[in-house]
Amino acid sequence: MTEDVKAQKFSTLFRWFDQNGDGSLTHDDLRQMTELFEGLAREDDKENAAAMRNAFETWWRLLLTHGDSDGDGQISRQEFIAVMKADVTDPGHFEEAVLAIVDALMRALDTNEDSVLSQSEYVRMYDALGVPPVHSAAAFRRLDRDGDGSLSHAEFRTAISEFYLSDDPEAAGNWLLGPLDRAD
Ligand SMILES: [Ca+2]
Ligand SMILES: [Ca+2]
Ligand SMILES: [Ca+2]
């Protein structure tokens, strides 16, 4: 059976989050993701690092509370896809888990306070987060909607929101993490 576009995107996201690659998500996987994100903030930027950490903890609690249907303390790929669709992308939850990370990340990266990311900044950021430059460079070109060579905070938020919320197979934001996972 072909999965819908959201299931494909959340499957791609699952593979990214599953840091030890054992096919299931644990608190440790999420903590490792948190460390990658925190590593993008400057050493003295405690505020944005803490905001990202809190948002990832919120995300993990949502996964565990709403998504661990077999109660084994881990989130399988199928559990992840279901809970992402039903709960994490619920507007209030989406704001406090996903968009809180995006906003803190943009603030942490915007060290010259021009509120935009160049392509090289964008690619370097995703490289540090484990997304290959070939994917992030291609994504950047799609996500830079006004084609001015930089990604504004608004363009980045739009991309993230499309990735998580859009059912449109043609949405530019689908390319955030590279080609969609069509594993099954
Ligand atoms: Ca794992
Ligand atoms: Ca489980
Ligand atoms: Ca732009």
TrEMBL record:
InterPro entries: EF-hand-dom_pair (IPR011992), EF_Hand_1_Ca_BS (IPR018247), EF_hand_dom (IPR002048). It comes from the Bacteria. It holds the Pfam family EF-hand_7. SUPFAM superfamilies: EF-hand (SSF47473). Residues 5-40, 68-90, 131-166 form the EF-hand domain. Keywords: Metal-binding, Repeat. GO terms for molecular function: calcium ion binding. The keyword Metal-binding applies. The keyword Amino-acid biosynthesis does not apply. PANTHER family: PROTEIN PHOSPATASE 3 REGULATORY SUBUNIT B ALPHA ISOFORM TYPE 1. This is Calcium-binding protein.
